[in-house]
Amino acid sequence: MDIAFIDNVLFATVRTATPLLLVALGVMISERSGVLNLGQEGMVLVGAALAFIAAYVTGNMGWGIIAGAFAGMLVSVLFAFIALSLMANQVATGLALTIFGTGLSAFVGADYVGQSIAGLSPISIPLLSSIPFIGKAFFAQDIMVYLSFCLFGGLWWLMRATRLGLIIRSVGENPEAAHALGYPVRKIRYCAVLFGGAMAGLAGAYLSLAYTPMWSEGIAAGRGWIALALVVFASWRANRVLFGAWLFGFASILHLLLQGYGYAISPNLLAMLPYLVTIIVLVIMMQRKQGGSDAPRSLGRPFSPSR
Amino acid sequence: MRIEKRLQPSRAMVLLSPVLALVLTLIAGALLFKMLGHPAGLSLYNYFINPISDWYGVSELLVKVTPLLLCAIGLMLCFKGKVWNIGAEGQFIFAALVSGYVSLQLMAVEGFWVLPVIIVAGALAGMAWAAIAALLKTHFQASEILTTIMLNYIALNLLLWGVHGPLKDPDGYNFPESALFADHTLLPLLSEDYRVTVAIYIALLMLAVVWFVLSKSIFGFQIRVMGESAGAAKFAGYKNRLLVWSLLLFSGAMAGVAAVSEVNGPVGQLIPTLNLGYGYAAIIVVFMGRMHPIGILIASFLLGLTYVGGEMVQIEQGMPKSIVGLFQGMLLFFLLACDLLIQYRLVLPGFGPIRLPSDRTKQVAS
């Protein structure tokens, strides 16, 4: 096992973790504000489809990224309106968003299956990228990976050290009290959901512009759902979300490693690994916490200011 | 326009909401077709009426209704007990794999017991897959929403492994498909001219059984109590774990039978794309059907129509087949939105609250 090999493994881990990190950070914010949006998978798919189409049509990756984030945000408005304004069951509304998003993305992307684009190319940062082990993984990635690092840093700081972070948390813990203090609970939740939508859309954009620069139906392959589990695993904390995303990223490339070593296991069986790891991690976390007491207290409960 | 809370939930709206949702879906669908440059009227006709304009079309609708209804029967019980089993899809796929394997093993064996064995194998496989989620929920407190979804992806990969590997037809020119099942392992057709099998009778029978259990038995009562108030169920001494297990196992069995109805019916072999999303569509069936046996029977016809209609506009107008998912998603979205009117009513400025006839009689009574 030489240094180049470890370099490559870390590089691939960070790359694979990026879409998970993006979705999970968005989930963290919306769940911290008390909204359980199970529509992540649908939003990622819509983001991926629209990002690819925009990049293909304009030939500009930047427009692709923007289109992906914007598309994710746009479909999250549907969820926000029905779950927050019309106070529908959040579990059912989230499922509806996933079913709708899966259909919508396949529908608008139908003409683009099999088309190819150049994709995002890596940008090596001089000097830093030649550090052994971490250089390639952290400083020779594409722009969206750097963007995900910045977003992570910003959100970590937001939730840990700012007044806004505290307000978001209070809305998720006790919306009645936050309302009594004069905070616009529903508006804050709307913003959190829309932010989550944009993050899921970005993750989709990463998948169809950088990870595999193409569009295919169901390209998200459950990453939206894995991100939801990841946030439970991370106890709704940004630094643990980052760590968890890397762990899941590693689990997802494990099959490439095993194949590289010549283990003759069917690729279909190995493709199960990330899902298996998700279940195992969920179980372990629940054992340690005895029932998820870290969850924001009003998670999934509708709030009506008139009460 | 604003909304105000009703004094009591409107029973009429419970039934009207799905109708309203369907109307809104049709309007949105018409706009969508128009936007894409297709004539709206003709497209809607092709989607919702043309497919069932002859007996063959109706029979094809029944082919879709069978697995949808079977999955929905199980999910209805789960959702009534607030067990969020999103895994009918995975239970369906795993059962398809197992019953498909059994069917292939019994190719050369004739006997009256062959089909029952295949059906039981499918039901048991579906139960086994659901049992994983039950175990994780009752003994490890893992959310069944996430575990069942993960199990869906795992089941799909297992199926892919099966058709690419051990179950691949050796004479199949290397296509990832199993051999065609022997005739005696296929469910009997109702008529030689159509693809409907006796599985539709099994579905209707199970629907009747579940209706009886829900309305007449203490078990059905316990499910309802657990769904409405977990605390009350605990206080009453109901065995919560046992209920969760029975609900998940039952719905797993139903998804398993649904898989047999599909694989040993119209499909007739194991293929990578045998799941058309019935497990997810059945969730919409349960919500549209108001978690009531008669309701889900009607709703399974509607959702079945979204499939055959989707195929029709695909053939007639060259639409992508994914329009099915789009219509199904819209249906559920509009339904959830309309359900607001069960608890609330619209108040138009200058007109006062919009009342349904049933509201008025209730107010007189009170």
From TrEMBL, chain A:
CDD domains given in the database record: TM_PBP1_transp_TpRbsC_like (cd06580)
Record's keyword terms, sorted: Cell membrane, Membrane, Transmembrane, Transmembrane helix
Subcellular location(s) of the protein: Cell inner membrane
InterPro entries: ABC_transp_permease (IPR001851)
Single GO cellular component term: plasma membrane
Ranges annotated as spanning the membrane: 12-30, 42-59, 65-88, 95-118, 138-159, 190-212, 218-236, 243-263, 269-287
Membrane topology field: Multi-pass membrane protein
Gene Ontology MF terms: transmembrane transporter activity
Protein name listed in UniProt: ABC transporter permease
Keyword Cell membrane (UniProt): yes
Pfam families for this protein: BPD_transp_2 (PF02653)
UniProtKB/TrEMBL annotation, chain B:
Compartments reported by the entry: Cell inner membrane
Bilayer topology: Multi-pass membrane protein
Keywords assigned: Cell membrane, Membrane, Transmembrane, Transmembrane helix
Family annotation (Pfam families): BPD_transp_2
InterPro entries: ABC_transp_permease
GO molecular function, one term: transmembrane transporter activity
GO terms for cellular component: plasma membrane
Transmembrane stretches, start-end: 12-35, 55-79, 91-108, 114-136, 145-163, 198-221, 242-261, 267-287, 294-310, 322-342
Major subcellular location class: membrane
Name of the protein in question: ABC transporter permease
Species for this entry: Neiella marina
